[in-house]
Amino acid sequence: MSKGTIFSIEEFAINDGPGIRTTVFLKGCPLRCAWCHNPEGLSPKPQIFHAMDGDEICGREVEAKDLAADLLKNREFFEMNGGGVTFTGGEPTMQADFLCEVMDLLPGVHKAIETSGYCKPEVFKKILDRLDLVLFDIKHTDPEQHRRWTGVDNAPILANLQTLKLSGKPFVIRVPLIPGVNDSLENMEATRDLVKDAPGLQRLELLRYHKTAGAKYPKVDMEYSPAFDTDAEPAVHDIFGNIKLLIL
Ligand code: SF4
User: Fold this and answer.
1) Could you give the domains of the chain?
2) Average pLDDT estimate for 191-209
3) In angstroms, what is the span from residue 80 Cα to ligand 1's centroid?
């Protein structure tokens, strides 16, 4: 039985898949997006968090069977409202063995993941096999710009996106809309063209950048100084045709 490190469990979530869900935040992410609003999810290890009422430890180790038992307490509630469990982070694929073990202990529960898609192809396939829904982020279609703003190459992400499309599994594309970074007409058209014909595509969500993204950085002794204009409004282009679009 493997152990994983999580930093939050939120019940009654309504934006992470169908129905009312429990969202589990797994710690650790290989990306460093300039707009990340969960800096406490970046390090894979528990760490000090300077909360309003004093320091606390953010992150704890948990055994797969204990986490699954906790999540199963809401099974009847999930069945009643069509909900389930969503794993996010950080980047949940970083703890693939633990994640798969937890999912294997949740038979009959609707399971979703929110992912950057940045992991090895065999890891992505193994996780995908166990999922009912994938919330897949596309941050930038241009390799150089992707590296500049997230710290990593987007080739593995695009390869995993292709696997997802071919699998026929239901998926939602999430695009963080960052002013001057990825909101150009060219990038939005390229994003649309990557997914427009996929049978599993449920909708595309544009998540507008919020200035509050930087609020938690001092709490984990990090500095927030993104190299884009945090006061600017991101552009929204009317180019998505038949794709169901949600702007959040
Ligand atoms: S992938 Fe998500 S958690 Fe990781 S750095 Fe980017 S925004 Fe933050």
Assistant:
1) 3-247 (3.20.20.70)
2) 97
3) 32
